[in-house]
Amino acid sequence: MTAQVTVDVAIVGGGMVGASLVAALRDTGIEVALVEGFAPDAAAQPSFDERTTAIGNGSRAVFEGLGVWPGMAAESGVIRAIHVSDAGRFGFARLVAAELGLEAFGYVLPNRVIGRALWAALESAPHLTTFVPARPVAVAVSRERAVLDVERAGGERTRVHAALLIAADGAQSMLRAALGLPSHVEDYRQVAVVANVAANRRHDDTAYERFTTVGPLALLPLADGSYTVVWALAPDAAERARALPAAEFLAELQQRFGWRAGRFVRLGARAAYPLALTRSDATHGERLVLIGNAAQALHPVAGQGFNLGLRDAATLAETLVAARARGEDLGSDAVLARFAEARSADRRGVTRFTDGLVKLFTDDRPGIGLARDLGLLLFDLAPPAKQLLSRVSWGFAGRLPRLARGLALAGREESRGP
Asked: What is the pTM of this model?
């Protein structure tokens, strides 16, 4: 006989965005079921591997509100300056946080550190039922409720009844597909080669974004003085780069990037990830809402993807807590429409911003490069433009979630944010 569980919300996906949502709901009294295919400390867990994530100031504020930042801070690199350049051309710009009244633009964290801190916060969550490792095997929704059949690794099945299903299961979302929400994929025809590299001198808390004819090349400062490299290449070039001996890889990286960071002397393990823009046509349906990469998966240029997804999670938690206080059905169309409206401007703005950057700096039509570089130089000379861009680390557009403003999920409207 199949076991039965009834909760308020069922979340599929316990990666960084899904776990953040659970942490936000931890003390709200909302009953949560979390379904995740891999244990958080498993070597096969794709969300908490050795890749790194850049988080902005708004994301740091969310993590502070969730009480998990102390478990991350000691292992975070700090971005106090950003250097942007157009490879082989004269355009460049430099942003310095102190000149804009900021301590930092953001922080760089290993994904495993984020995962460890978030899952530690879930261990004592009083209203949480976890299915880990497990997978959803069937789903159905009606006007009254949602039903999710979950199978654990050993074959044991449980039927989960919920007012709301939340898809936090990534760009290839099973829930999104199962419930018929279409999505569109734009292949950038690029593959990101990711690795940690050390130079012959420690970094000075500067992040570099260098745009090349085949795609952006980013260096992000790590806590130990080295860098994470995210190098976007054509698929065949990426395959070749992964196969190169370490010395040859570093030599090619040096040639592409230059000497601003010093001489590259050591290389860590390399991984590769295809790059595409995936967008769901709708971010909610009947008793279903999409957050993070399930709603929109972005190119890593400018490091906005996770920050956008974390604001999804923080806003959804705020929306659900307010709905519960009003006695509303958490999966109702009215509640989900309010969430979608609250997130629409930010989602739309960040998606256009990142997609536009990729296309602008790979456009080789005559005259575009000159205009691009003149624009960079003008930006470098315009403090108001830099001030405006610095706010992207809090959020792109629309109302910031309460947690990102240093507030509790519910209460008075006072803020520590910008």
From this structure: 0.91
